Amino acid sequence: MFSQFLSAAYLPFAISFAVMIGIGLIEAIGLGLGHLDLDGDIGADGHSGLLDWLGLGGELPILIWLTSLLGCFTLAGVAIQQITEALHGTPIAWPLAASGALVLGGLFNTLAANGLAQIMPGFETTVISTDDLLRQRATILEGTARRGAPARAKVVDRHGQAHFILVEPHDDAGTIASGETVLIVRRDGARFFALPDTNTLLQSV
Question: What residue stretches are annotated with the Inner membrane protein YqiJ OB-fold domain (predicted)?
């Protein structure tokens, strides 16, 4: 069976199985690549419904979903080749088998992913959106922040993880010195704008 699995007719499924094992090893040694942020702006144009259908709309880590897809693809492909060989004495060409396995595997994975999401209700991700750093306080680490000349700052998110960002004063003529604490109020791309805690508007915040 093992030598048959390595034959040309089973090649896509052997590769899929190997990738699946590789992803499992990555997760096992704790690299944590499964916790990817898929939020983005997908809800605006209706793609969120597709992600929900695929099993990606909930809290299921992306690499667990991908591992499930590879497993379903492998099982569907092997089943197609085994059934074809039993009926006709020889497996079909791997492109045809892979096409069929992709369709069947995708359908099976939808059920599997949604099932996994249901039995993992306690999963919590420490991945946050960039916008989640807004309204958080940061500390200027070095240099003096001026408009057009940002300074490097450190902000700790709600999970206790540190992020290092570039900060400019919210006010055009403002400056923020090294060591000052600021409130992040807006961002433009990768650049954040903040008000220093010494600002009188923040005295009651």
Answer: 136-194
